[in-house]
Amino acid sequence: MPMPITPVVRTPSAYDYPLLIKQLWITPLANATKNEIIYRGERRFTYAQVRDRVGRLAHALAGLGVQPGQTVAVMDWDSHRYLECFFAIPMMGCVLQTVNIRLSPEQILYTLDHAGADAILVHTDFLPLLAAIAPRLKKKPRLVRIQDTPAPAPSELAFAGEYEQLLAAAPADYEFPDFDENARATTFYTTGTTGLPKGVYFSHRQLVLHTLAILAWFGTAPANGRIHREDVYMPITPMFHVHGWGMPYAATLMGLKQIYPGRYQPELLLKWIREEGVTLSHCVPTLLHMLLTHPDAQKTDLSRLKMVIGGSALPQGLCRMALERGMDVYSGYGMSETGPLQIISHLSSAEARADLDTQVRLRTRTGRSVVLCDVRAVDEHLRPLPRDGASVGEVVFRSPWLTQGYLNEPEKSEELWRGGWLHSGDLGRFDADGFLQIADRVKDVVKTGGEWISSLTLEDLISQDPTVSEVAVIGVPDPKWGERPLALVVPKPGCTPDPAAIRARLASEAQAGRIPAYGVPDRVLIVEALEKTSVGKLDKKRLREKYRA
Known about the structure:
alpha/beta, Rossmann fold, GMP Synthetase, Chain A, domain 3, 7-stranded mixed β-sheet, 5-stranded mixed β-sheet, 17 helices
């Protein structure tokens, strides 16, 4: 006979403690009020000052008529202002829309309309873009100008005020209310490769739990990638993209010294790594490549820098380059829809003592599931596949901070959550120790000669050629085989990759049984650059369109 469930009895005067973003300020204000948050090395604020500015921003927005439940969009580079918006806007009970300023003007117009932006905070760099689409916005949002220089840039737009002037005129003592922790806090739009961008949204509860999970998992790492309270944090993932992977919230909760770089310029990023002592960051592989190949990297000590790489697979060649410079680099995995944290490739203490070749292999594994994350590889009936290192299926998720769906798109939301699991569209396999290895995106797998060829595996092998800087493998139409893999290679400066040598190396891998025989590309093309998405990933859709002939 089942035991009865005992109901929770609360003392009438007890504080229910909703999981709201405002609660993330309790700890730093108690322990780290004098630590600094720095913008481009030019403006420095203590935590106490930034928290005052959060209150001033809320007063300023309320004074412009912004009401709880309305959406406030932000178009800015990574800055202390963006961090203030991460807090003030949702803490008011409003929804923060982080606008992907690298989308096309038509896509930005769509996202602002689709989210129903009631106010837009816009940096002067984006005034021409906004001016071009503003007449077609369905709403007439209030506009606030953000500027880094005293003299305003000319614009035909009408502004309700300038950011710093509005804050200077507002009090700091805004009384942020308690409300339902399941209230929507943020909205942003996935870039995708087909169709219009899709709106992803998260609640206060989800963002707080995601923040705590970052600290729980990274703070307990035994040998690499551990985050602690003396770290110095600088994002190299745009703050418009999945809340900067959630790290600004975690860095603030811990009271870390934080550096916000504005627009990414590799020489300045390296300068702040040197001068501010940056120890913690994250980015996509293309940005890591940009840093490591910049001339200033040679005069920059990178040995204290911990860097989690996500967005796309970390190639072994790039990983080796970073490790040879002393960096603690390793893989992470998630999606815009997952918050994004789901999988991290931390090493065990024994693995951390391995030789360089072994380290490269281990750190480029996709990784293990983070606390509270149920991640599986499943068949077409959603049945979990064996964790044998060989059985490949679609990767699906359940965790407390997954988006509940796509904003105002119920059919796409149902497809995303088909069968009660959030679907990734990625193919992967788990080994007996719980390590996930992503095989490929479903749409990027090359189907040739009855074989499924992983473009990621081929890219990883080609990246190890010492003459190769970047590589992408795509499937192109073939009248006999349906598709054939095509390798696109960007040379390292001063080097000339040999296509025949690359093909020969892949042929030896095929002979050894490590890749299918059909996996050796017929052609290896040397190209000057590879097309990227707005968040720095390889844009394989555009590459397929460009090279399909």
